[in-house]
Amino acid sequence: MPHLQLFLLGAPRAVVGGQTARLRTRKMLALLAYLALEPGPHPRRDLSALFWPGPPTPSRNALRVALHHLNTALGPGLLVGTAGTLELLRTCMWSDAQALIEAAKSGTVPVPVADLDQWPGEFLLGLELQASAEWDSWVTQMGLRLSQHADTLLSASAQSQFMAGRVPAALAAAQRRTELDPLNHGAYEQLVQLQRAAGRVVDAQQTERQRSDTLQREWGIGVRGTAHMRAGSRPALVGRSSLFQQMDEAWSRGQVVFLSGEAGVGKTRLAETFFAERQLDHFTVVAQAPDAVVPYAVHARSLRVNLAFLGHPPVPSRLRYELARTVPELWADRPRPLRTAAQRLRFYEAYIDFLAEVCPAYTPQLFENLHHWDQDSYQLGAYASAHGPPRGAHVRALMTFRPNELPAGMQGGLAAALEQGGAVVLEVPRLDIGGVHELLAQVEPNASGALADRLHRFTGGNPLFVLETASLLRASGGLTHPDYRELPRSREVGAVIARRFSRLSSAAQEVAQVAALAGAEFTFQVAVQVLGTELSVAAAFQELETAGIFQQERFAHDLLSLTAHDLTPPRVKTVVHRRLLTALRSTRASAATLARHAVAGECWPEAQALLLEASRDAADLLSSPVAQAFAAQAAALSTGPRSS
């Protein structure tokens, strides 16, 4: 049996027996990609609707023809199934995209995808199809998922290479992150930190200028400061004057300031602007998601950046020996492992002595992403905060975190610090509608007020979401266009929101899916009718409210609803639409609304009847074009009910 290789990262191609397969249409290659990345048998009716939307009979015929040509091109045995299902035999297939997914799950760099620093990039590059909206959504979400996996693995690779002393490889991996996504703030932060820790100050300064120039070019406004920032480069802030004053008061009291808020709301920008306004030299340590499972990962990075920032000052040998447990280059031989609580305490004390003796004028720090910290670094930091001040090792820091991602142990420690008065938590909220108007005016002074209003509904006032959407509008010349009903969606924003949904319970995800598919008809009672028990739905509503995804039983903004819709699997959509049809029959829902759910739920006889009723309703309202459109849809269904 021939072996199939699918290269889906970059320009896609299929290779069989070492030779590139000649496929007659692009949809055949797209079908292979879908079957390769969505394991298991698929109903043929779903596949035909995905790639050839329209009346059932022509759709099924098109799939049948495509499968005939695929079997001819690939050889027999790779595509298997029954009269009603189809799947790709995975034991005789390999794809670079699947290798990347598996590597992300295991946390290792995949050999078959070549080196990650040579990762070819965009998923299904250049494969444009006239297919269903479901296909477009699947490609978008899979592309986001693969990009996120590649970025995570590159970040982990850069970190592990640096920890092992392979500096050039670490810098190459970090550099590749910025090349794959020029708007990736975390990638720039990591590259600058590694360059500074390696003593390449000039390279770090060049990276900072590159980041600033890129974001200035993309967004057209001043952007967040650098990892080593002085006064005079304050980014434009909108609606943050009150927060800035609270930060100033807390800093004057000697408190550690925690900035809490969702991704993209501007926590880092606020912190760096604060340091610049006070003319405070500082260094930044950015925790990454892989850090959470690596003991002392954040502590080791902080120590390296601290030493590089201070010009690698002399460190007493007794301290170097202990600190070499996390930074091996400080001692020739590996120190003995920590076996007892007393040994761990000695290590903690050495760190405090390092802060007091080597860093007497302790430099302020910005710690980003407390929610990604490993527990060991967190416990060490908590101990240093509680026991350091008597010896002059007082930590002066700003720290950022996302509240819904903070582990329970860290929440308890933060609560204790607040109770003792050593810290303050300030919430960084989304912008109100006035703030969005002001921010958009910086991007495009000639933009209309209608666009700013629409952006606020679309993004909920998240500054990153506003700027990313405005950037895409600028690229298409749409910042001053009068029609903003269909706003573009950024891949980076989609990834941010998808990560938020992934952290929800399955019950909350199901409620969000129902809300996205129901639209304006969604209510608590509708969710109960579709999903089952009232108690579980109530708990899911509370979870969605707490996570900031729902506000008063509705999505907080349009991007959340659109992403929830995209993340819902096709078969789940069909089932939910059927249940919504049943749930809404007892309400005053219009025939047009019921017809939408009947069509999406593949209830063909009911769909045809409801479309005809909707056509009559539209005609009664003197809306002839709409009436004709509904009638045409009903006529298209008259070719016969859809079957397997």
UniProtKB/TrEMBL annotation:
Gene3D superfamilies: P-loop containing nucleotide triphosphate hydrolases, Tetratricopeptide repeat domain, Winged helix-like DNA-binding domain superfamily/Winged helix DNA-binding domain. Coiled coil: none annotated. Residues 95-224 form the Bacterial transcriptional activator domain. It comes from the Bacteria. PANTHER family: TRANSCRIPTIONAL REGULATOR REDD-RELATED (PTHR35807). This is AAA family ATPase. It comes from Deinococcus oregonensis. The lineage of its organism: Bacteria, Thermotogati, Deinococcota, Deinococci, Deinococcales.
